[in-house]
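quick q for whoever's on today - can somebody do inverse folding on this one?? i tried earlier but teh output was garbage lol. tokens:
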């Protein structure tokens, strides 16, 4: 079972593997086994990478070439095809080298996913985070990243299963870091000021 909130997906500017600035969609999800203990659940984040240009579903428009280029670029960066949404299998997918998920440590409202050549996602999580998602990320000490290439504007739980069965999901395990705002160093404490009306210090002369 896949828990995907009903809120609209947050959208943010990010660089795709083609190093272009595009609008990508991302949403936090929880994947678990129906009827099993919640401890088996896996916290994941899915990013939808759009095909170049506006969505066009006409039969005479071929987007397979652009899709293939993006998928090949993701494979070169370590992502692997996802063939099952079983939580046990997702928790054992390969770890991605030089990838990092940065979660704002103070507000937990912003997520940045850094890949070897740039930024894949940089956006606000908003209210789309399922209950217990942050706790699961902390317990996993990693984040299951799922990606799909296409012009899917929104994905529900059934749609995610369909993507998996169609071979359109790729993913990997990425390290997580909490980014807290830098703290200012304490100001040096000034020494005691000499009162203006205090007598001058006595001078001593060396003995003759």
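ok took a stab at it. sequence:
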């Amino acid at each position: 079972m896949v828990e995907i909130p009903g809120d609209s997906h947050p959208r943010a500017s990010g660089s795709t593997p083609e190093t272009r600035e595009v609008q990508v969609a991302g949403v936090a999800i929880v994947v678990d086994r129906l009827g099993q203990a919640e401890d088996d659940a896996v916290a994941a984040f899915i990013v939808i990478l759009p095909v170049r240009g506006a969505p066009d579903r006409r039969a005479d428009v071929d987007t397979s070439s652009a899709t293939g280029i993006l998928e090949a670029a993701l494979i070169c960066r370590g992502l692997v095809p996802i063939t099952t949404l079983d939580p046990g299998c997702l928790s054992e997918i390969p770890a991605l080298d030089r990838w990092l998920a940065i979660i704002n440590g103070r507000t937990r409202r912003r997520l940045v996913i850094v890949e070897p050549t740039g930024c894949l996602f940089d956006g606000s999580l908003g209210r789309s985070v399922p209950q217990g998602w942050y706790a699961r990320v902390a317990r996993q000490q990693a984040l299951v990243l799922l990606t799909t290439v296409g012009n899917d504007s929104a994905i529900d739980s059934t749609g995610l299963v369909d993507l998996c069965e169609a071979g359109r999901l790729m993913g990997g395990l990425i390290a997580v870091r909490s980014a807290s705002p830098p703290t200012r160093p304490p100001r040096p404490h000034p020494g005691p000021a000499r009162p203006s009306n205090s007598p001058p210090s006595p001078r001593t002369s060396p003995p003759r």
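fwiw The chain has one domain: 2-179. also The radius of gyration is 26 Å. so keep that in mind when u check it
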